[in-house]
Design goal:
Layout lengths: L2 E2 L5 E2 L2 H24 L6 H8 L3 H7 L4 H27 L4 H17 L1 H7 L6 H4 L6 H19 L10 H20 L5 H17 L2
Antiparallel strand pairs: 1-2
Helix pairs in contact: 1-2, 1-4, 1-6, 4-5, 4-8, 5-9, 5-10, 6-9, 8-9
Length: 210
């Protein structure tokens, strides 16, 4: 039973707290297994064993098994990136178009540099095409919307803008670059500094052409 605290906030019962802890332990175990084995080789049995739980317990919390676990973990990272994008593009980070784009690239690289998280988010497995449609592209689409709006506003302030490129096309290409950057940093083929310098150079070139 959930009761209210003196401030009106819900106070969870011991049973509810235990359920939340078990659920988190299963998600954390899944993150470890997916990061190590990818999606295709990860099994419900191994995830349950890693969490110290029975296979039946895992299905009690995640009836759709590894697909549901993967989607929930993926969406957690999506939401982190969306929150950061909202912070950057709501003006909290200040600066101009280029500095905001670099700040967004740094947020993406922050995810990539966390070993398990980066490897997990960068998993590329054809079998995910059926598992991920509900969440794949969620963060990218939101980030692209922010970039497109920011680019359009920046161009509109230029007295003699030469740009005839649709902001949505610019945003699509830049978001693709950020996605690629996450994968390369997570796999260790590019460094954080390399990626951020490259994004800064692209942004500078883009602004010089407007």
């Amino acid at each position: 039973m959930t009761v209210q605290t003196q401030h009106g906030e819900p106070k969870l019962s011991l049973r509810e707290r235990n359920r939340l802890r078990t659920r988190r332990e299963l998600l954390d175990a899944a993150l470890e297994v997916f990061s190590e084995d990818g999606f295709g080789s990860a099994t419900v049995e191994k995830i349950a064993e890693r969490a110290g739980a029975a296979k039946g317990t895992l299905y009690t919390y995640f009836p759709q098994g590894r697909e549901q676990l993967f989607c929930e973990l993926y969406e957690e990272i999506n939401n982190e990136l969306i929150d950061k994008a909202t912070e950057i593009y709501s003006g909290a980070e200040g600066g101009d178009f280029s500095s905001r784009l670099v700040a967004m690239s740094e947020a993406v690289v922050d995810v990539a540099e966390r070993p398990m998280l980066g490897r997990f988010y960068a998993i590329d497995d054809p079998s995910l095409d059926q598992a991920l449609p509900p969440v794949r592209g969620h963060a990218s689409s939101v980030i692209a919307q922010h970039i497109a709006k920011d680019y359009a506003a920046t161009v509109s302030r230029q007295p003699r803008s030469r740009s005839a490129v649709a902001p949505e096309s610019i945003a699509m290409l830049l978001t693709g670059a950020l996605t690629a950057a996450l994968s390369t940093v997570a796999r260790g083929t590019q460094s954080r500094d390399d990626v951020c310098r490259a994004i800064a150079a692209v942004a500078a070139g883009l602004m010089s052409s407007t």
